[in-house]
Specification:
heterotrimer; B: 318 residues; mainly alpha; two-stranded antiparallel sheet; 12 helices; 2% strand; C: 94 residues; alpha+beta; three-stranded antiparallel sheet; 24% strand
Chain lengths: 252, 318, 94
């Protein structure tokens, strides 16, 4: 694997995470518990779409095959997507969406804070923008976790079920492959071992504040880094890529 | 007896000051005295307007996950989000009249309050997203620009903000249509099909002809409404026909002719039977729209309860 | 019971140093939510640099029936305005 190939894959992974999250978050549009929350979740979906654009456009440039962000979003198959499985899981109830946002936004905040120091200037500048968004997403998720965890008996039960249910998808966020190793040597990629400790501290603290119990399971799902997904991704792509596939000659 | 007379006199004075304000084109504010009919009319109109924005999120929301490019997805999301925001502004403005958002939602669910008929039609293809932005928002904007001058202050202020924000909505719809008319044969066909299905319902958005709903009504006397249905409809037709021509779309009206004398377009008869039938529940999507709104409202109840319960606990602690 | 959470009035500052101007209303159950909802509702187009939120029922409004006693008495106090005064010709920077 060359540095170019490693960087391409690294950008795809980050871009795909944003793209798939934007898909799931946008599903909340006109479905949220209040009108205000509807606007908030749409804002997050918009943040994620912009992030996907920036990262996939850069991936295309790194690859050098003239692929645009749209080519990469709409013309790749399931086995060529490298997002973490947690992001493709269905939204579930509002507690599940908050639990996922809690896990992923905390991760992204820590991840992009580190990536701001990447030797790759383009990634560093994307990270500087993303880290602000992530901090807001994390604040929003923390506050809702507090409300749901300490709210009613029902909301506490749902919130506990949500953090438990998604727990087995969190380990994958810290997995590394050959691309990571190669880019770590060049100070381009983030040291995931370092942020794993911080992530665990923050989540443990937040779960406690929310009056919940830390999930206990030690089994972790894996596959996203190799392009092996849960069944949900295929359906996401079927829907997302529908027009591009039905009318391959059209521009929109 | 004396007190009663005095009260009546006071009441007359108060209403007198309301009428004087309307006469002077002064805005009426929430704490001002106003006839009960004025308040009721506003609550009905503003809540219907708010419900329309919120229900209107559904047909466009139908295409969010299928938008054909990242740019298209962003624009559509931002637009639908705006509709939600506009619903929120309008609910808030209506709340200044002494009705709660919860009561308005309950009225929507019971069928007492209506929303714009146009959203009972389905968004079938991507071209429908273009047609909705261009025609439906285009028609709404004509109405809303006129409502910026409405007499109730909070309503007028909401309209000013909404008009400012909506200026991109119509453009994004027209851009979609233009792109499709510039595209493949299949895209052009899709665009014309959407035009054919959305043109007439868009004209119906302005409501019955003036002969059916005369200018002399309270809404005009109180300056809630500033232009008649036919005036607004004509304005919309006159600007839209030219836009259709520029991109090669045919307006599906065999009777459409430029009237040189009146300097405006004459149009064919509107199918009011369809209009009334859809209003009365027989549109293709009436049940779907209401069922969706009720389901979301019910599913969100535990979240709102939890938020309130958390607040009460926190207040006790502090 | 109202299940739509409490009402808050939103005031926005468009740029540093400017007055805070009423932007509108949102619903929220607590202060943090109120601030975030105000942000997500009223700054979608980069309109603000600072936000205040105030519970709607904490706002006290003057009664329009009192307008004559409240506001009319200041109408004839034109000596509070700089244009009231006649300055000697040739005086500068005053």
């Amino acid at each position: 694997m060359t540095e170019q190939q490693a960087l391409y894959k690294y950008c795809l992974r980050l871009g795909d995470n944003a793209l798939v999250q934007s898909y799931r978050l946008s599903e909340w549009c006109s479905n949220a518990p209040t009108l205000e929350e509807d606007l908030a979740l749409t804002n997050f979906a918009l943040d994620m779409t912009g992030r996907a654009q920036a990262l996939l456009a850069y991936a295309g440039e790194v690859d050098g095959n003239g692929k645009t962000d749209d080519d990469l979003a709409y013309r790749r198959g399931e086995r060529e997507f490298y997002n973490h499985l947690i992001n493709e899981q269905p939204n579930g109830d509002f507690a599940h969406t908050i639990a996922r946002l809690l896990y992923t936004s905390t991760y992204e905040y820590l991840f992009y804070t580190e990536l701001m120091h990447s030797a790759d200037e383009r990634l560093a500048s994307i990270a500087a923008k993303v880290v602000k968004e992530s901090r807001y997403h994390m604040t929003h998720a923390n506050d809702w976790a507090m409300r749901l965890g300490n709210g009613t008996e029902e909301s506490q039960g749902r919130m506990q079920a949500a953090i438990d249910g998604l727990w087995m998808f969190t380990g994958e966020m810290f997995e590394t492959d050959a691309a990571d190793a190669l880019l770590r040597d060049k100070n381009i990629a983030v040291d995931l071992g370092k942020i794993k400790i911080k992530w665990m501290e923050r989540i443990t603290e937040m779960v406690k504040l929310a009056g919940l119990k830390m999930p206990q399971g030690s089994y972790m799902q894996t596959g996203g880094l190799k392009g092996i997904h849960t069944e949900y991704l295929g359906h996401i792509l079927t829907e997302m890529q529908y027009l591009q596939r039905a009318y391959p000659d059209a521009t929109w | 007896m004396e007190l009663l007379e005095k009260n009546e006199k006071l009441q007359d004075n108060k209403l007198g000051s309301f009428e004087a304000k309307i006469e002077r084109d002064d805005a009426i504010e929430p704490r001002d005295n106003m006839p009960e009919g004025y308040r009721k009319h506003l609550i009905r109109q503003m809540s219907q307007h708010a419900h329309s924005e919120v229900i209107g999120m559904q047909p466009e929301g139908n295409w969010i996950t299928r938008a054909p490019s990242l740019r298209a997805k962003q624009i559509l999301l931002a637009k639908i989000q705006d509709e939600g925001g506009h619903g929120l502004y309008l609910y808030s403005a209506a709340e200044t009249l002494g009705i709660t958002r919860d009561e308005m939602i309950a009225q929507l669910h019971s069928g007492k309050a209506k929303y714009s008929n146009i959203f009972n039609y389905p968004a079938l293809t991507w071209a429908d997203i273009g047609a909705i932005g261009w025609l439906v928002d285009g028609a709404a904007i004509v109405n809303q620009v006129s409502l910026q001058r409405t007499s109730y202050g909070p309503y007028s202020r909401a309209m000013v903000r909404i008009c400012k924000e909506e200026s991109f909505h119509q453009r994004q719809g027209y851009e979609i249509m233009a792109k499709m008319m510039n595209g493949t044969a299949a895209q052009r066909e899709m665009a014309q099909d959407a035009m054919n299905r959305w043109w007439w319902p868009s004209l119906m958005m302005f409501g019955p002809h003036d002969s059916e709903s005369p200018r002399s009504g309270d809404a005009f006397k109180w300056k809630i409404k500033r232009s008649t249905n036919d005036e607004l409809r004509q304005k919309f037709i006159d600007k839209t026909v030219q836009q259709a021509e520029v991109i090669g779309l045919k307006v599906p009206d065999a009777d459409l002719r430029w009237n040189e004398e009146k300097k405006c377009y004459d149009h064919g008869p509107i199918n009011w039977e369809e209009f009334h039938s859809v209003i009365n529940g027989n549109g293709p999507c009436n049940n779907q729209r209401m069922a969706h709104h009720k389901k979301v409202h019910a599913e969100g109840a535990w979240v709102r309860e939890a938020a309130e319960a958390y607040r009460l606990k926190e207040e006790k602690l502090n | 019971m109202d299940t739509q959470l409490g009402k808050w009035e939103v005031f926005m500052q468009a740029k540093p140093g400017a007055n805070y101007i009423h932007a509108g209303t949102i619903h929220a159950s607590d202060k943090k939510m109120a601030l975030q909802n105000a942000r997500d509702t009223y700054t979608r187009r980069g309109e603000g640099t600072s936000i205040w939120v105030v519970p709607t029922d904490a706002i006290v409004a003057s009664n329009p029936d009192d307008n004559d006693m409240f506001f009319d008495p200041s109408n004839d106090k034109t000596y509070r305005l700089p244009t009231f005064y006649v300055m000697p010709e040739g005086a500068k920077a005053i």
